[in-house]
Amino acid sequence: MGKCMQGFLDEQFMELEELQDDVNPNFVEEVATLYFKDSARLINSIDQALERGSFDFNRLDNYMHQFKGSSSSIGASKVKTECTMFREYCRVGNAEGCLRTFQQVKKEHATLRKKLEHYFQASQ
Amino acid sequence: MADEVPSLAESKLTALVVDDNFVNQTMHHKLLDRLGIKNDVVCNGQEAVDVHCSGRNYDLILMDMEMPILNGIQATKRLREMGIESKIAGVTTRANEGDKKEFMEAGLNDFQEKPLTISKLLSILHRLDFHVQT
């Protein structure tokens, strides 16, 4: 894992890299693609729920639980941290906190996406 | 590290991954593949029950806790009621003690926190007495 990824990805990402082999030479990139496809869907669902102004904290927490789970599985540590914050705000029913933290979730997610795109291009 | 990973291919173990998250499904499937364990993947507890009703059986089940339709706790209970004696390892993100206790009491043989890694999976296999040749 390159220096540029440090802080954004934790040791779980290295576990992914260890699973890459001759049978699946693009395993890491495939998992990352799956992650971004899945997380885009979740971000969209949360965006729509927040835009409607309906703060169904249970539903929001459910979406974020899935998002956090995926982020954890690929080692996306900063995204995972923001997901945890969002869930805390859901737990106490703080709508403003949810809105504010969600912007951070999206920001970290977008940053990670760019970094991984560069990382995969550089490793080809 | 890839060279040090043991292979259980000769033991012909089979496993079922039960998880609603696509990233986790892919990861767990690959982890098991890497250890030479043939495995199937289903998306929730109901599908896990259905696949057993169809006559399939597995040595090991990796069961997520929070899933739609039928969650891990309900699915584990249902499988045990059906007489399924496979080893079931609960695999979930940090759950509170109450949830873990309820999950274990549903009929688990072991419990491990996500995200899974090769070493966590090997721990499960060791604790459940699956012979791991090194």
How is this structure best described in words?
The complex is a heterodimer of chains A (124) and B (134). In chain A, 77% of the residues lie in helices and 0% in strands. The relative contact order of chain A is 0.15. Chain A starts with 10 loop residues before the first helix and ends with a helix. Chain A has a single domain, classed as Four Helix Bundle (Hemerythrin (Met), subunit A). With 124 residues, chain A is mainly alpha-helical. Chain A is built from 5 helices and no strands. Chain B has 134 residues and is an alpha/beta fold. Chain B has one domain: 3-Layer(aba) Sandwich (Rossmann fold). Chain B contains 5 helices and 5 strands; from the N terminus they run βαβαβαβαβα. Chain B has a 5-stranded parallel beta sheet with strand order 2-1-3-4-5, sandwiched between helices. In chain B, α1 links the parallel β1 and β2. Classes of the chains: A mainly alpha (124), B alpha/beta (134). Chains A and B meet through α1, α2 and α3 of A and α1 of B.
- By CATH, the topology of chain B is Rossmann fold
Order of helices and strands of chain A: HHHHH
In the sheet with the most strands of chain B, the strands line up as: 2-1-3-4-5
Low-confidence stretches of chain A: none
Number of helices of chain B: 5
User: What is the fold named in CATH at topology level of chain A?
Assistant: Four Helix Bundle (Hemerythrin (Met), subunit A)
Overall shape of chain B: globular
Q: What's the CATH H-level superfamily name of chain B?
A: Response regulator
Q: Write down the Rg of chain A.
A: 15 Å
Structural class of chain B: alpha/beta
What are the segments of chain B in which pLDDT stays under 50 over at least 5 consecutive residues?
none
Strand segment count of chain A: 0
- Give helix % range of chain A: over 70%
Determine the strand fraction of chain A and express it as a percent band.
under 5%
* Number of domain units of chain B: 1
Largest interface (CB within 8 Å) is between:
A-B, 22 and 18 residues
Cα radius of gyration of chain B in angstroms: 14 Å
CATH class of chain B equals: Alpha Beta
CATH C-level of chain A: Mainly Alpha
- Class by helix and strand content of chain A? mainly alpha
Average predicted confidence as pLDDT of chain B: 91
Modified residues (Phosphohistidine) (chain A): 65
GO molecular function (chain A): histidine phosphotransfer kinase activity; protein histidine kinase binding
Organism (chain A): Brassica napus (Rape)
Keywords (chain A): Acetylation, Cytokinin signaling pathway, Cytoplasm, Nucleus, Phosphoprotein, Two-component regulatory system
